Amino acid sequence: MKRRLLVSLVPVALLASCGDKAEDEAAGDAMDPASDQALNGELATDPDLAGSNEANAALSGTGNAAIPDIDKSPRAVEAARSRAAELVGGRSELVSPPSALSLGADGQPSAGMVAAARAAVSPGGENCGDKVEYTSSWAAKLPTAFPVYPRGNTQEAAGTDEGDCALRVVSFLTPVALEEVLAFYYTRARAAGYSAEHTKSAGDNILSGTKGKAAYVVYGRRLSQGVTEIDLVTTD
């Protein structure tokens, strides 16, 4: 099964629903034609990642765009959990995010979602989505605070540092439960000085936040195959 990464992970509909006047104006700034294209347009799937290129297998785990038969054994899950705990200073340091606030059709987006959406368009009006390149190496170029979850199987990765753009989009799978993965990112975000909000929309759990001009959004869902799928978006 081929997958497609989307810059529209932060939908325009959510931006348009901002209730605060200042937020409305900020969202309005991001709603010009270039922003609309960046937020709604799909990024073309890279042939290497959608096909069978094994050059990036060290990062992608399989080099195959189909959902792989990843190791879901108790031993593999425990190894991933242990490494995740090490990265936050111990299991006792892992903190689960607060209960998710449901975002309905008229839901108000979090500050992190708005910031990530606006970052899809550079200050000069360039569509950063048009500049991204697809290669698994972008999974290794995520901000220090937001690495791929330990032993995660990267499915697709894209990003750009061209011009004023600084965008990363990575999709990966892990056998670890969704709640534990969200706790890992929540803990990492707070430790690094980012804000953190937990919402839910269209079946996805969404963790997002900002630190200065930087933003992150983590979209997570549990698949029927018994694995957790994460789409991670970061901007600087």
Task: Briefly characterize the structure.
The chain has 8 helices and 8 strands, in the order ααααααβαβββαββββ. It has helices at 12-16, 21-29, 33-40, 47-50, 57-60, 74-87, 111-119, 178-191, and strands spanning 101-102, 133-134, 153-160, 167-174, 197-201, 204-211, 214-222, 228-235.
Q: Give the biggest sheet.
A: 8 strands, mixed
Instruction: Give the helices and strands as they follow along the chain.
Output: HHHHHHEHEEEHEEEE
How many individual helices? 8
How do the strands line up in the largest sheet? 1-5-6-7-8-4-3-2
Global shape:
globular
Mean pLDDT score, rounded?
A: 73
Strand percent estimate: 15-25%
State the end-to-end distance.
31 Å
Task: Name the structural class.
Answer: alpha+beta
Number of strands: 8
Proportion of residues in helical segments: 25-40%
Taking pLDDT < 50 over at least 5 consecutive residues as the criterion, the unreliable ranges are 1-65
Radius of gyration: 17 Å
State the main characteristics.
alpha+beta, single chain, disordered N terminus, 21% strand, 8 helices, eight-stranded mixed β-sheet, 236 residues
Characterization of the model:
- The chain has 8 helices and 8 strands; from the N terminus they run H-H-H-H-H-H-E-H-E-E-E-H-E-E-E-E.
- The protein has 236 residues and is an alpha+beta fold.
- The chain is globular.
- The two termini are 31 Å apart.
Topology:
Elements: H1 12-16, H2 21-29, H3 33-40, H4 47-50, H5 57-60, H6 74-87, E1 101-102, H7 111-119, E2 133-134, E3 153-160, E4 167-174, H8 178-191, E5 197-201, E6 204-211, E7 214-222, E8 228-235
Parallel strand pairs: 1-5
Antiparallel strand pairs: 2-3, 3-4, 4-8, 5-6, 6-7, 7-8
